[in-house]
Amino acid sequence: MNEGYEPVYARSRGGRVESVHFGAGAVVDAGGRLLFSFGDPQLSVYLRSSAKPFQALPFAEHGGPGHFKLTPKELALLCASHQGTDEHVETAAAIQAKIGIGEPDLGCGIHPPGDRATRARMEAAGEAPTANRHNCSGKHTGMLACCRLMDWPLETYLDRSHPLQVCILETLAAMSDFPMEAIGIGTDGCSAPNFSIPLYNAALAFARLSDPSGLPERRRDGCRSITTAMTAHPEMVAGRGEFDTCMMEAGGGNLVSKGGAEGYQAVGLLPWAAGGDSPGIGIVLKVSDGDPGGMVRTSLALAILKSIGALDHSQAEELAAFGPERVIKNYRGVETGAGAPLIEFDGTGR
């Protein structure tokens, strides 16, 4: 069940360990060097929503943002797992107007917004959610925008054999240096294809996304447009108060953060983000039990970032609510326990 994983995080109560979570991860630089890992770095798992920057990359590198006059804020939404606020919905609708599609064209389905205040207001008003409230509406809008740009069919854009999905698969394979035919393909919660690749290769892809200096010019420019948009408008990528947004706000333009479902977390560090002449670095990790509540993946990500010097004291304090160590309280606010990583990272290994 936990093959390829190792104990990475413990929750305690009354001074006794109550539960242990297992995980695996890899930290890789843009040159392909494995800096350190825990568990099996060759473990192949689904990226889930952490794949979104790569699903938007074909559109970006073929000049789509300029062709449709998208703003950086709008481009950031194409990489988002957003909370369905009015701001997110209005941004999605603005993109759709520019590319000449409508909300009914989205194949992502419908669910209530993730933002509690928005959901409560809509329920009180008897307002039903629509597709643009879906956390993947930006990704689907971007896929349709790419189809418009390349003159590909819209109706079948989610089919695995569609030119768009083939192009996305080729792009991920090249970015991760992993054979396209070896990539595992499943169906994501939003009905789009999703991809399983080794943790090492996913970390390499995020390192190259963040430091594309060794890539061909068109791809290099596409990567930079995506990371620039995500870091300039982190509120579009997740939502105010959400981990990815808070991470990028605290990072001051030096990192991109993109979580995925079932305990997946990815971070890309731009060159020099870890101090000195550090290269671009990709960090990916997976919590084997899916990490209900998201406490484990955020704590591990922060522990790694602190260990390699990518977060200073003030940034770590700004993000302290997410870890690495967490105080656990009950519904009365009474402290009942704690959570902490079981792994100590020293920045160069374990």
Q: What features would you describe in this structure?
A:
Strands 1, 2, 3, 7, 8, 9, 10 and 11 form an 8-stranded antiparallel beta sheet that branches. The chain starts with 5 loop residues before the first strand and ends in a 9-residue tail after the last strand. The chain has 350 residues and is an alpha+beta fold. The protein has helices spanning 52-61, 64-67, 72-77, 86-99, 116-125, 137-150, 163-176, 199-210, 217-232, 234-237, 243-251, 295-307, 313-318, and strands spanning 6-13, 16-29, 34-38, 44-46, 184-187, 193-198, 255-260, 264-269, 281-287, 326-329, 335-341.
Number of strands: 11
The largest β sheet comes out as: 8 strands, antiparallel
Q: Classify the helix fraction into a percent range.
A: 25-40%
Net shape: globular
Distance between the termini: 24 Å
Compressed to H and E, one letter per element, the order equals EEEEHHHHHHHEEHHHHEEEHHEE
What is the rounded Rg?
Answer: 20 Å
Helix/strand class: alpha+beta
Mean pLDDT: 96
Treating each run of at least 4 consecutive H or I residues as one helix, how many helices?
A: 13
* Poorly predicted ranges: none
Q: What percentage of amino acids are in beta strands?
A: 15-25%
